[in-house]
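Hi V.,

You were right to ask for the full record rather than a summary. Here it is.
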Amino acid sequence: MSTFHFELVSPEKLMFSGEVTQVDVPGEEGDFGVMAGHAPFVATLRPGVLTVYGENAPKMIVVRGGFAEVGPNGLTVLAQEVIPVDEIQPDVIRQAIDDAKEDVADAKDDRTRDKATERLAQLEVLKDALGH
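Predicted structure:
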């Protein structure tokens, strides 16, 4: 299977750089897969699980916000937040969901409520994607 270069970058550091066979990306308008020879493409990310396929078992990484760009040099994903799935604890997700529900209930204005509702929806999608 052909490979291509993939980089995953967060504000803190370069999280991954190497040759891969496929990357599945949670795009704002739907998930999409990238393989060698993919047409140039730019997409915004939604919170979800990015899956990297290479020589070993697939690596699953939670991303939140950012964008992906496929170009002649491969795929680059710039994410606001990156957390390897194996570092996420179900209790932490459940607590974050409870906190977000409280934020929705305590919101004093529409803007704050909308932001809290969006965060709650993102956490619910993440929980479902991870099977927790």
